[in-house]
Amino acid sequence: MLLDSLADGSLQLSQAHLIVVSDVQRVVPMVAPHPVLRIMLEHHNKLVDAPSVLAMFTSSPHRWPSLDFTWLESSLRARAFFLMTKAVDTWSGPMELVIEYDAYDPPRAEHELFEKIHEIDPRGAIFRPHHYRRASRILRQLGSFAAGLYWKEGIDTVLNTPDGPESNTTDIRRSLEALKKQFPEDKLDVRAGSASYNATPKLDKVLQVLKLVANNGTDFRGVVYVQDRAVAHILSEVLNNELPFIQAATLCGVAWRKPDEGVSWLTSLELLQDFEAGSHNVLISTKSCEDLDIAPVSMIINFDLFDDQLTHAYSHAHSKGQLSHTVYLVERDNNEHRRILARLQTLDDELRSWIADLAQDDENVPPRTMYTSIDPYRSDGEEDDQDEEYIEDPTTGARLYKSDVVAAVYKFVAEIQATPGFGEQTPSLSLEKTGGNGNGQRETFRYTLTFPVVMRLPTFVGPYSPSRWEAKRDTCYQACHELVQVGLMNLRHFPQSRIPAPRATSTPSKIQTANASAKTHGYPRKTTDFWRNSQSSPSTTLYPTIVVPEDLGGDPHAPVLLLTRAALPLTVEFNVFFCGARASVRFYKAEPLEVNDGQLKALHGYTLRVTKSLTNKPLDCPVGSLLCYFAPLEPTWHSSLSARWPLLSVQDHIQWGSVQLAADYFAIPLLDGNTSIDERARDAIVLDRQVEFTMRHFVRKVRHDMTPLSKAEDSPREADYASFLEYCKARLNNFQGIEDEKQPMIEVSAVPGVINNLHPTSAPPTPPAKSPLKYLIPELCHKFTIPASVFRTLWLMPSILNKIESYLLTKELNARLFHNMIIEQQLLIALSAPAAWTEANYERLEFLGDSFLKVVGSNYCYVTMPSVEVGELHVARQGIIGNKVLQGGAAGVGVPSYIQHKRFVAKIWQPPIASGDSPDRTRVADADGDIEMADAAQENKDKGKRSKKQRQLDDLYTLWMGDKTIADVVEAILAAAFLSGGHEVALQAARCMQIPIPGIAQWADYTRLATEHAVPPQTGAILHPSPSTVAAVERIFGASFARPELLEQALVHTSKSGGNQVTSYERLEFIGDAVLDFLVARYIWERYPFLSPGGLTLLKAAMVSNQTLAAFSVHLGLHHQLQVDAKDLTSTIEKYADFLEELRKKEYDFAAREQRLPGQYWLDMPMEPPKCLSDVVESVLGALYISDNFFEVGVGQFFEGIFKPFLEAHIRLQTLSTNPKVTLLEFLAAEGCQNHTYMKEPNARSNMPVNMTVIIHGKVIAAATDSSPVIATRKVSLAALDALANDPELLARTCDCKSASNKQTPAKKPAVRVETQEDEETDAAEVEAAMEGVEEDAE
Q1: d(C-alpha 367, C-alpha 426), whole Å
Q2: Using alpha carbons only, what angle is made at residue 1052 by residues 1049 and 1053, rounded to the nearest 5 degrees?
Q3: Closest-CA residue to 1167 (of 1214, 1123, 1196, 1134)
Q4: What is the rounded end-to-end Cα distance, in angstroms, of the chain?
């Protein structure tokens, strides 16, 4: 890292006073000079006043006489001294060397045999697609010689395998045999310039390293870690053929291959014993075997880099400490490899101590700071090993094999250690040994995994095994199986293979293009894998999630159990809405429960009853086919316990009697001779007829003051009749009368139809034109078998389940594409389009992400195009941040399929049902007698215009979205990633979505690329500003410039540089503009957490406008430092500055008299500001940003200390315009609100004060009074802006214009006309005149 910083110029060695080399025995030359030696040779030796060097060499005193430090003294320009210290029991890992190799691009896309074999076997009768994939990977990793070796070995295997009696491959075998004879024998040639070169630079480096140990004799042992099993096997063959002293064996998956015995296999334990005994001296291993008990080795070669500190720890454990070497093969100029190396070297003291313990067989669980990759680094076919057990994650379908379980337990332990409430309690992993005491009994091992008592988890004790690694895997596998079963271990602990990047020439499949627009595409809609994955789970083992909504609208909501066949991951709290009311829904996990066949049948019937009651349609399916069930809970359950530890036990709290009753009957008589009407009507829903699919009513109260003979005073339905009884006689067919004419009446309200409850403006459907029912005679009613409080919660379940499925999809994408880098709540918002009609959508995040992406693109163009003028930089940046580019990258990795773009339609909801058991709803009569076609999306495809229902069903499978929507989602995801982990996480998210910034793997790579692409300056071209200029600008900006020459360039106008944009401030202004845009966007986003994108955009436009920045430049006095060589421009700047100062004094005077903060006084300027005034602010900001190596150190200080106070003093929602009325109208237009008006109340007399109100969607949000109509309008506008700023959710609760705009009915025209510039000037003159009148009256 130090060498890189010195090489790219970001650090000067002359700034150092002392260089400390803490472990100088590692400074040994192998293939290339050690970085410390390069620092001394290339930098230290060239300095006259060089810093001192302190190097330390650790050795036992008895070795001192044999040590020769001559070469070190010469290299380090130092002198050796010996110091006796107290012996300490410490571990020092192997010497680590980094060897660079050149990137390799094969001259042929595939090996010649690849093409010939494909011609012989075009249908894949013998050679399958995976054979070709493996050959391609071998070609790119090892070269054409190795690829030919792979194909020849494959042909030999085919020819040596007897042909089956029913096989039709005889002709293919003959052709393969002929091909083998005619194909010449090849030899490995590692000479890069030769015509017969058939290796890769990477393979060449491996051979070079291993040749260095040719004289080590039988003591040498080495391990080469390779990601791909096919590459590992062929590499083993190459090493055995090319290096006579190497006897290599290959570890792939679950077994080791013995190369000299053809296809025979040895057990892992046997082969490890052979390796220790010397039968093999090199092991070629995949990552899945990194935890095996390998004999200490002299050398570990990382043929592939694994971004995993646990792998790094195992390398230390397998080494001989300081007597070993760890070699990292790194592709030259590959910044991704550099990023991985940086993480592997970033170890805190706690992790270093744990690695030392691991290396010395004193093992326990690692500290939570250890980074364990979620990428399993599996190769093709590694999951197909026979007889290998695995645990499946129901959310993503990811598998946990025995080779993965140790890392999974470590991840789980790290997570719970970070959970508040555990204190000093930590899990422990302890080893127990038996046997091996010389009595002939083999030594065996077993591990015990213990969790804190508060978790209420058992202690896991594994079986005795012949090796430690097997024992540890067995114990961790037990623990993982149990933790997954109870739902505590989830997708975050499972290895997830990354979604592969698309090839440059490939087009994503299954994407349709709209006929009307080439910018609109149809994407296959992704459905959650959770329900499909849970189908294979036993139907009698259920995993409860307790759903607890707050009381919505003042009515009680009882907790309900959601029972699934696989454990749902913990769902975060979210809100539901109804008629302006809001309620949060909380979730609590509970222990799994076993149900018998009778209970399962009851749950099945209860869930079908709930579904039919919600949708008012029939539904039937076989018992056991439902993938989730509902059940009521008794009031005795305990909601005060934590939502995570320990798990609740609900087995004894399920109301099985209520479940069975609802499963058997939809209604029972309301009246019971043994129970009072008050008791029977409590928490009840009633039906006025014994028909299942009909209207239901909540019982509000029992009216003992009314009987069937009473006159209906407040019920329009019975108003024309003498009594309720008379109404029944007249309107009910075959009415037989009632037994008790003095029974009390019950007051009821209709149960609304199920709706989408996920948006703040959610409301019930339009009520029927006929008068609603308010009173019922109990004797004529039937009681619904589900209580009202339970049904209110169940009524919300379609929306709740839809939200849960959205979270499940988000978790899938986060795990598969982003490896859980992004906070799930933020990612879900980023994936929610406005059309989805949810509480939050991506618009606010897109506002922030757009600015961040602008910085990413600007940085990249600036550093990779050092001689290009600004116009070309803008064009190049568009090639990174353009909508089409973002859409293409996102579509390539499948992001559009996860976007929530369609509004949830509750009417067509049904619970998830196992595949093959979906109910037949081809022709279903609803409650109104209409026939609905609800079959698959194909039924009405060719029958002309689709019905509304058919369109809704079609939308379940295809998402039609414009490229702009996809691009907005990409920008929103970048913002979500930035909020989750800052610049680095957002940059990784950009790379995951294929945003074209090659060579950028971490933020520091911008500096590296800038150094690599830098154009050498011409003689005398570097100008350094005078010390007074530097001091003045640093005082203005509150920060120091590490590169003063950039400050000089930032102050040079094009008139001074002869029109040369490269040497003027234009390029720096380009990057400073992007940085300032992001700083302002982030400030506004945080300052106004509930303000919608329209308001955010208005504020940002005001804060970064040329007028604002020009005024700020004059405010700072920065214009005095600007170097201009144009008299007219200089005169204009002076004139503007003088005029601006007058306006500032006037505005500050007005603000003081009105006891308010000043506004944007520069908006009253009659002349446009010189653009150079705003440009120089951005150019100096760009210079400061680049001086800090593209980090926000200096610019952040400037923004927080200088620019933000200026903004807060002058720019607010109320001061976006000099006329508040214009500001309010612009704000409402930006919000999409069309239903608003100013209302002037009529006065009885002409001289009375004027009352003005602002009304939005019929609701008065502000009122003001003044003797002048103009002043009253100004006051009420300011009051309305204050109301909107102080209550950011006000507009969301009252305005539904955006959702209404999607309907076919035309939107209501706004009730206020558009303000013109002439109106604004007139109002301003009237306000000024009115204010003067007020001042005269005061005098």
Answers
A1: 10
A2: 140
A3: 1134
A4: 73
Structure tokens at 1123: 């170097």
Peptide linkage before 646 cis (omega within 30 of 0): yes
Bridge partners of 20, per DSSP, are 54
pLDDT in tens, 733-767: 888 889 889 999 999 999 998 999 998 888 776 66
Which one-letter DSSP state was computed for residue 198?
A: -
Q: Which two tokens stand for residue 1308?
A: 């209501």
Q: Highest mean pLDDT range out of 218-232, 934-948, 1304-1318?
A: 218-232
pLDDT over 90 for what percent of the chain? 41
Q: Supply the pTM of this predicted model.
A: 0.83
Q: What is the rounded average pLDDT of the residues 1278-1284? A: 81
Exposed (0-12), middle (13-18) or buried (19+): which is 1206, by Cβ within 10 Å? middle
CB-based contact 972:900 (threshold 8 Å): no
Q: Is a pLDDT exceeding 90 seen at residue 329? A: yes
Q: Is the CB of residue 666 less than 8 Å from the CB of residue 609?
A: yes
**Long-range pairs, 706-709, Cβ under 8 A, ≥24:** 706/744, 706/745, 706/775, 707/741, 707/742, 707/743, 707/744, 707/745, 708/738, 708/741, 708/743, 708/745, 708/777, 709/741, 709/742
The amino acid present at 166, given as its one-letter code, is E
Q: Residue 647: exposed, middle, or buried by beta-carbon count in 10 A (0-12, 13-18, 19+)?
A: buried
* Cα–Cα dist 25/72, whole Å: 9
Show Cβ contacts of residue 592 under 8 Å, excluding neighbours closer than 6 positions: 485, 486, 487, 541, 542, 543, 544, 567
Reported as a single tens digit per residue, the pLDDT across 1126-1153 is 888 999 999 999 999 999 999 999 889 8
What percent of the chain lies above the pLDDT cut of 70?
A: 83
Dihedral angle over CA of 880, 882, 885, 889, nearest 10: 80
Residue type, 100: E
Cβ within 8 Å of residue 352, ≥6 positions away:
none
Summarised one tens digit per residue, pLDDT across range 111-167 is 888 888 888 888 888 898 889 999 999 999 999 999 999 999 998 888 888 876 656
H or E element, residue 417 = helix 405-417
Average pLDDT of the segment spanning 549-570? 91
Nearest CA among 816, 813, 854 for reference residue 830? 813
Which residue type does 768 have? P
DSSP β-ladder status, 745-750 and 775-776? antiparallel
Whether the predicted pLDDT of 929 surpasses 50: no
Residues with Cβ < 8 Å from 752, sequence gap 6 or more? Answer: 764, 765, 795
**pLDDT tens by residue, 573-607:** 999 998 878 899 999 888 889 999 999 999 999 99
| Residues 224, 1194: Cα–Cα separation, whole Å | 45
Q: Which residues, including other chains, have CB under 8 Å from residue 1311's CB and lie 6 or more apart?
A: 1235, 1236, 1237
Q: CA 773 → CA 727, 746, 747, 1285, distances in Å?
A: 12, 11, 9, 42
CA gap 677, 686 in Å, rounded: 13
| Residue 1, pLDDT score | 67
| Per-residue pLDDT tens digits for 185-214 | 889 999 888 889 999 999 999 999 999 888
**3-state DSSP assignment of residue 1320:** helix
| CA–CA distance, 672 with 660 (Å, rounded to integer) | 20
Answer whether 640's CB lies under 8 Å from 646's CB: no
| Secondary structure of residue 1326 in the 3-state scheme | helix
Instruction: Provide φ and ψ at 391, rounded to 5°.
Output: -115, 135
* Residue-wise pLDDT tens digits, 1013-1028: 887 665 444 567 788 8
Among residues 1049, 1333, 1009, 1027, which one has the least CA distance to residue 1189? 1009
The secondary element (H helix, E strand) that includes residue 1271 is helix 1269-1286
User: What is each CA distance from 881 to 746, 852, 886, 916, 982, in whole angstroms?
Assistant: 64, 10, 6, 45, 19
